[in-house]
Amino acid sequence: MRVRHPIILVLGAALMLVGGLARGEVRDPGTHFFDSTFGDFKEELARAKEEGKKGVLLMFEMDECPFCQRMKANVLNQSEIQDYYKANFLIFPLDVEGNIDVTDFSGKATTQKAIALEEYRVRATPVFAFFDLDGKLVTRYTGATKDAEEFRLLGQYVVDGAYAGANFPTYRREHQKAQKP
Prior knowledge:
The chain is 47% helix and 17% strand. By secondary structure, the protein is α+β, with helices and mostly antiparallel strands. The protein has a single domain, classed as Glutaredoxin. A hairpin with a 5-residue loop joins β3 and β4.
């Protein structure tokens, strides 16, 4: 009996390690998901074009938001998510209660709070707002996604331009149907 317990412990640890590897590396979203900015989103559009991105993603959030924290702890910290989104978008967080000065996509000076409430009517967090390279809002998603796969699919929905012909729930449903044997 005594010999089996160490083997079971080693096998259990190995399974946990393999499970963790299958999920992917976990990295801090503050340094690996979000990009740095001086808050001039008109300039960020030019940068996105130069870097060959598909657009800009703004995450409207607030510190006390449990759904924002859930997204950061379970989805935005996944290396596969970070790599996919960083390849396709410049990504910036905006505090819906923040008084930090920013410049919107049209070049107008404002604050984080004003851009969230007045310009994009953000009333709940998180809100993931996707903009094309002209600064036009192409889609927005309010709330936390079910999991990392659904969030990756949301990015794919924008990258593929599917927002032009269907809403995200329809796109997700069609994608799920196509995945079933």
